[in-house]
Amino acid sequence: MAECHTGQKRILVTGGSGLVGRAIQHVINEEGGGKEGEQWSFLSSKDANLMNKEETQAVFQKHKPTHVIHLAAMVGGLFKNMRVNLDFWRNNIYINDNVLQAAHDVAAVKVVSCLSTCIFPDKTTYPINETMIHNGPPHQSNFGYSYAKRMIDVYNRAYVEQNGRSYTSVIPTNVFGPHDNFNIEDGHVLPGLIHKAYIAQKEEKPLVVWGSGSPRRQFIYSLDLARLILWVVREYNEVEPIILSVGEEEEVSIKEAAEAVVRALDFKGEVVYDTDKSDGQFKKTASNEKLMRYLPDFPFTPFDKALKDTCDWFVANYDDARK
Fold first, then answer.
1. Of 105, 92, 128, which is closest to residue 241 (Cα–Cα)?
2. Residue 3: which pLDDT band, with cuts at 50, 70 and 90?
3. How far apart are CA 60 and CA 25, in angstroms?
4. Any idea which residues carry the catalytic annotation?
5. What is the band of 79 on the pLDDT scale with cuts at 50, 70, 90?
């Protein structure tokens, strides 16, 4: 679907203070990634409770965006999802319904929402691609979050069909980088490993990795993802989602990720695996073939360099980092 908007672009980012929102801010402000005629606004939870319809409408009326990058969500790692699937379902449904309708009410011409590879069916063939989202139930461990995120794709198609809007979504693989949530209990695997290794180093104790270390993941650096999302906002005009990820050959096991954290932090202690803890989904290998058709030469940051930069940031900002 072609975009018909000319003139000043007012781009509003929900979840602007989170991992990906901060990465977009960095690319815009520190790398000169903004363009002439673009006015950027980044919302945090302090600006509005997006689970509340009136607050969401008010903040959209205030900014009157022409374009929206919708990153806001209730998120958490495997163990938090397993505890409160109902909360993940309800809260994300509220957020998504309010944001997409508020964007429509102010006549935003384009909305790009952020999904997750965990929305894909648990029982599937690999690699997964954009056509397979609705082909079966997601993994039981995070079905609340997964179904709520899947519904954004349903919303997008309905808004496009009924109102002619350019609504679409991106599907990143596991994102990591500066400003991540390094909470050990509720964060995602890589920031959790970084925080645990940092503490274990300080206390001269073993690094305990939850699970067997055998599950496999593709990791994308938050700054790479930010650069790709800017491209999607400006250039990508399909309603169908697009997977934003490194290639299948870049997939690493949790054990390999833990070993990379050990190298990045120069951790000298023992590494042990607590196999009483759940592994979660074994793998969710995603194809970036569609992205590569559009951007065959996109320069992804090498995993070890991105991880080293993230670890350095965490150590330097330990007191203020989310944890």
1. 128
2. very low
3. 19
4. 145
5. low
